[in-house]
Amino acid sequence: MECLRGNLVNLFMDFETFGEHQWKDTGIFDFMDTFIPEWLSQYENRFVTASEACDISQPVGEISMPETVTWADTERDLSAWASNAMQESATKDLYAMRDSVLATKDEKLIRDWRYLTTSDHPYAMCTKYWHDGDVHAYFSAYASPYEAFMYFENVLRDLEYRITQE
Fold first, then answer.
1. pLDDT, tens digit (0-9, with 9 covering 90-100), for 126-138
2. Neighbours of 101 (CB within 10 A)
3. Three-state DSSP class for residue 118
4. So what's the pLDDT on residue 130?
5. Which residues contact residue 94 at a Cβ distance below 8 angstroms, ignoring those fewer than 6 apart?
């Protein structure tokens, strides 16, 4: 196992940070164009994936996180993804077909099912209001959470049909 001479620094950002939350005119792209080569030019600095970090570094402590914490909404909990009947139903329907999808061994079908497991789908079905609702509407491709749910369920029905055609 390789050892790190220095500290491991973790930076976690949504891909949306670049160009969505931080627009080009903020200088974010210029910053990254400068930062990355400068970082890599310093002694032994490099970028690694989370898995690679686990392989090359030992834990130095523990953080207790008895509850899930998120970036979303004023509550900073899972309610943006799991607070209404549509989200619960869609998630239940999606994971109910997991074994059937995987049993097909059809790479395209499995890939499509996995796309549906991304958090954007239940997030688009969120029915929160006030300021949080504005954020959900801004980041959604749908006219309403109800439309997001209907499209999602239609895609699930399409996947079910594709499974039966295997």
1. 888 755 556 656 6
2. 22
3. coil
4. 58
5. 113, 116, 117, 156
DSSP state for residue 156 in the 8-state scheme? H
Task: Tell me which DSSP letter residue 81 carries.
Answer: T
The rounded distance, in Å, linking the Cα atoms of 133 and 121 is: 15
Rounded Cα gap, residues 52 and 65, in angstroms: 23
Written as six digits, the tokens of 67 are 């509850």
Q: Give the integer Cα–Cα distance in Å for 1 and 16.
A: 34
CA distance linking residue 84 with residue 127, whole number of Å: 7
Question: CB of 123 within 8 A of CB of 83?
Answer: no
Q: Is 158 helix (H, G, I), strand (E, B) or coil?
A: helix
Q: CB within 8 A of 45, min separation 6: which ones?
A: 39
What does the DSSP 8-state code read for residue 88? H
pTM score: 0.69
Task: For 53-73, give one letter per residue: b (16+ CB within 10 A) or e.
Answer: eeeeeeeeeeeeeeeeeeebb
- The residue to which tokens 């979303």 are assigned: 72
Neighbours of 115 (CB within 10 A): 11
Q: Which residue has the tokens 């491709």?
A: 141
pLDDT tens profile 3-53: 556 677 777 777 777 777 788 898 988 988 998 899 889 878 888 888 888
